[in-house]
Structures are given as C-alpha cells and as structure tokens.
Amino acid sequence: MLQLVLPEYFLHLFYTLLFLFAFEWLTVLLNVPLIIYHFQRYRTRPVMSRPGLYDPTTIMNADQLSRAMKEGWIKLGFYIVSFFYYLYGMIYTLVSGI
C-alpha cells in the first residue's frame, strides 16, 4: 500500500505547487484541504512493523473497511472532478489564445 500512497501524496503536492507558482488561487484553494487531509492521515497512521495507512489486523472489520472504501470513493470522485476541471482550463486557455 505504501508504494502507491507516497507517490500519490507527492504528485498531488507537486501539482498544487505548480498551481501556486502559476497564481491559480482557486485551484490551490480547492486542493489544500486534501493536502492537509493527506498530511494528517499519514501522520496518524497506525504503528506497525511495516509502514502503511491501514492496520492489516483491523482493516477487515466492517466499520474500518467501510470507512476505507468511503475514503477511496471520495478521493476518486475528487480526482475525477479535478481532472475535468484541469482539462476544461487547458482547453479554455488554448482556445482563448487564438
């Protein structure tokens, strides 16, 4: 799990920094809450022998699994909406530049 989590966090932070340098304030404001959540989630991860976000002994509990799935679906929705927002911004910039 950690092999995918840290690259996700770093890529999200990288894109947000790019938007910050481009003075895209609305986009930065939309991304900052998820960055804060990522930081808090990683900081409060369970202590285990190997690093990870989920404790393998408790993840199969119904409430833990339900919470993890909700988190995954919400983040997927955020990333899909963000993708189309970024795509719209790119197309708008390309068309208005002509």
From TrEMBL:
Which InterPro entries does its entry note? Cornichon
Sorted keywords for this record are:
Membrane, Transmembrane, Transmembrane helix
Q: Which Pfam families match?
A: Cornichon (PF03311)
What residue intervals traverse the membrane? 12-39, 76-95
GO CC, alphabetical: membrane
Single biological process term from Gene Ontology:
vesicle-mediated transport
Task: Give the main location.
Answer: membrane
Q: How does it sit in the membrane?
A: Multi-pass membrane protein
List, alphabetically, the SMART domains matched: Cornichon
**Where's it found, cell-wise?**
Membrane
- Mind telling me which PANTHER family this protein's record contains? CORNICHON-RELATED
The Swiss-Prot or TrEMBL record describes its family as follows: Belongs to the cornichon family.
Name assigned to this protein: Protein cornichon
Organism for this UniProt entry: Larinioides sclopetarius
